[in-house]
């Protein structure tokens, strides 16, 4: 019934329904996930993280649960914890492109130097590119940022050019524009942070 209320736009009613369902079934990871999505939709990220965390505790070997928790933590600003859960998602499912790409992006571009790790970002982004056949512009964009963070600026420039071309071919003008802006940074020896 909570899904129905949420579908109708009655988020408050749906939240109440999920709270009651969780009181009755506290060990149902799917209920925790659904409640978390609903809370996130309402901008209640702290509570959403709590519900995603409960789902991970109930399903610690589920890469999707770790990925969803990592996304919520990243939105909340808990980057270190997000990186841990993205890494765990990748450990559990080595071909998880979204998790590979997201953790690589954080490691390549985070504003705090202590979080960045260009070498690991290149490794993870390369794997994501291999899995997508080097045909996904946003994944290739992560690789160009990773190369720059690792100090490999010639490769960063070349890859950013490929990102631009791929994005334009797919009609993704905004993605192409951001790749072009990064390329200009790489040409002067600066990483995207």
Mind explaining what this structure looks like?
By secondary structure, the chain is mainly alpha-helical. It is 76% helix and 0% strand. It has 11 helices and no strands. It has helices spanning 2-7, 11-24, 29-41, 45-58, 63-76, 79-92, 97-109, 118-131, 137-149, 153-169, 173-187. The protein is elongated and about 60 Å long. The chain starts with a helix and ends in a 6-residue tail after the last helix.
Q: What Rg is obtained from the alpha carbons, in whole angstroms?
A: 19 Å
Give the rounded overall mean pLDDT.
90
Share of helix among residues? over 70%
Helix and strand succession? HHHHHHHHHHH
**Tell me about the biggest sheet?**
none
Which blocks of ≥5 consecutive residues have pLDDT under 50? 1-10
The rough form would be described as elongated
Secondary structural class: mainly alpha
Percent of residues in β-strands: under 5%
Number of strands: 0
């Amino acid at each position: 019934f909570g899904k129905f209320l949420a579908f109708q736009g009655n988020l408050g009613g749906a939240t109440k329904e999920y709270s009651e369902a969780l009181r009755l079934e506290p060990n149902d990871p799917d209920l925790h996930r659904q409640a978390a999505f609903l809370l996130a939709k309402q901008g209640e990220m702290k509570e959403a993280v709590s519900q995603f965390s409960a789902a991970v505790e109930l399903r610690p070997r589920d890469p999707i649960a770790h990925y969803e928790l990592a996304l919520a933590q990243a939105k909340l600003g808990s980057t270190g914890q997000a990186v841990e859960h993205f890494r765990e998602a990748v450990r559990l499912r080595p071909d998880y492109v979204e998790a590979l790409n997201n953790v690589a992006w954080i490691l390549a571009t985070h504003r705090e130097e202590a979080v960045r790790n260009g070498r690991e970002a290149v490794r993870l982004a390369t794997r994501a590119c291999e899995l997508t056949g080097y045909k996904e512009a946003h994944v290739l964009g992560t690789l160009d940022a990773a190369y720059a963070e690792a100090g490999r600026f010639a490769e960063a420039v070349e890859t950013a050019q490929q990102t631009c071309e791929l994005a334009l071919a797919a009609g993704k003008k905004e993605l192409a524009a951001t790749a072009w802006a990064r390329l200009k940074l790489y040409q002067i020896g600066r990483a995207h942070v």
